[in-house]
Design a protein that fits this description.
Layout (H helix, E strand, L loop, with lengths): L2 H20 L3 H9 L3 H14 L4 H13 L3 H14 L4 H14 L2 H14 L4 H13 L3 H14 L4 H8 L7 E12 L5 E13 L4 E12 L2 E15 L2 E11 L8 E9 L6 E11 L2 E14 L2 E11 L5 E11 L4 E12 L7 E13 L4 E12 L3 E13 L1
Helix pairs in contact: 2-3, 3-4, 4-5, 4-6, 5-6, 6-7, 6-8, 7-8, 8-9, 9-10
């Protein structure tokens, strides 16, 4: 026999034996998982799943270890593949729900849990996770109901009692009041303003309706205003603020009517788009402002930048840039602000302005809050203006 052929026949079984020895097994994946070698476990389970398309256990374990590594999209895909192989297995729908919850897809998580509870109505695990998702979705009453159902099924589970004890029902009403003292270095001298606002949560999504009274003692006159507004979440990632206001009686310097629409896209991204539109109607014309902006969230706070373009009664256009740095601390929230540009809001003539500001909001308790604010305005060649304000908040 040819030496080459003989050597090949001898070597081939050895090669096949070597390849077979290196093929990952389900047991390899379990061993890596138990040793917390998660990338190796995922690789082993993925190899087994690719080699054995009907191996649902390999796909289940692959989904678990991918989720533990925060590889959420891959984990979701693996859970869906496992569900396609075993659609009646409630645990797989719970696993898919858990990863969607970790990723922040609470709506998708709740849908999977509904399916799991149809398949296994007595699943304590599904009910506990449902409570967690509902609580994260700001639905504490529904979360409490889910935890209580789980507690009825497993009274000895101490974790459920702990979860129930941590639920705080949101207070529905909020009352805010504030006063601002203004000091101008020209003929205007000392002026002031005040407000009182009452708001109430409505529905299940964190929407708020409110009414506000404003009193302005400026330019030697008194104007009083009434505003109705709403904070509305048409989508979990979009917050809108809508306002409609009017000046009571004859307006001396305030607009007769005011409309405001602003929004924030609360994206899980390094930047969040902002926008605002304001319409002011005076007896001699209208003023409109369009103000786009961006917010850059970071750990412990955020930075905002906005630029407003205003069409004035005179037909001119003016622009104002504003920036704000907010720091979120335990029990208090300080901020710094800066504004520069030109404006021509009646009754004042167009002028260049520069404003520096800052303040702190305090969480005094679960029901009480307070804030102090200060600003300095330089209206070029017209006046310099100091303002200091204080406010209180009461939730009930």
């Amino acid at each position: 026999m040819n030496r080459y052929v003989r050597r090949t026949l001898i070597t081939l079984p050895l090669c096949l034996l070597t390849l077979s020895a290196h093929a990952a097994t389900y047991e390899d994946g379990v061993r890596f998982k138990n040793q917390q070698q998660l990338p190796s476990a995922a690789a082993a389970f993925a190899e087994v799943a690719a080699r054995e398309p009907r191996n649902v256990l390999a796909r289940e374990q692959l989904a678990i270890v991918l989720g533990w590594q925060n590889r959420f999209d891959e984990s979701i895909a693996a859970w869906r593949q496992a569900i396609a192989l075993a659609p009646d297995k409630a645990d797989y729908h719970i696993g898919l729900a858990r990863v969607n919850y970790w990723k922040g897809n609470r709506s998708a998580a709740l849908q999977s849990l509904d399916t799991a509870l149809r398949l296994a109505p007595g699943s304590t695990e599904a009910l506990k996770l449902q409570g967690d998702v509902l609580l994260a979705d700001n639905r504490p009453a529904e979360a409490r109901s889910a935890y209580q159902r789980a507690q009825q099924l497993t009274p000895s589970d101490a974790e459920i009692a702990t979860k129930l004890s941590r639920i705080v029902e949101p207070l529905l009403w909020r009352l805010d009041a504030g006063f601002t003292y203004d000091d101008y270095d020209n003929f205007r001298g000392a002026e002031n303003s005040r407000f009182v606002q009452l708001g109430r949560r409505v529905g299940k999504g964190g929407n708020v309706l409110y009414a506000r009274y404003d009193g302005f003692a400026n330019f030697g006159s008194q104007d009083d205003g009434l505003t109705l507004g709403a904070y509305w979440l048409p989508h979990p990632k979009l917050l809108l603020n809508l306002e409609a206001g009017l000046t009571l009686g004859n307006a001396d310097f305030r607009p007769d009517t005011l409309l405001l629409a602003s929004g924030e896209w609360l994206l899980d991204f390094f930047v969040q788009p902002l926008f605002a539109f304001r319409y002011l109607k005076y007896d001699n014309g209208t003023v409109t402002t369009l103000q786009p902006g961006l917010r850059l969230p970071f750990t412990g706070g955020n930075v905002e930048a906005r630029y407003g373009i205003t069409n004035n009664i005179s037909g001119s256009s003016t622009g104002v840039f504003s920036g704000k740095l907010t720091l979120e601390r335990e029990g208090y929230t300080p901020y710094l602000a800066f504004t520069t540009g030109s404006e021509a809001l009646p009754p004042q003539a167009e002028a260049d302005i520069t404003i520096f500001g800052g303040g702190v909001a305090f969480d005094l308790s679960s029901q009480w809050g307070a804030r102090v604010d200060y600003s300095y305005e330089d209206r070029k060649d017209i006046y310099k203006h100091h303002a200091i304000g204080a406010g209180l908040t009461y939730k009930f």
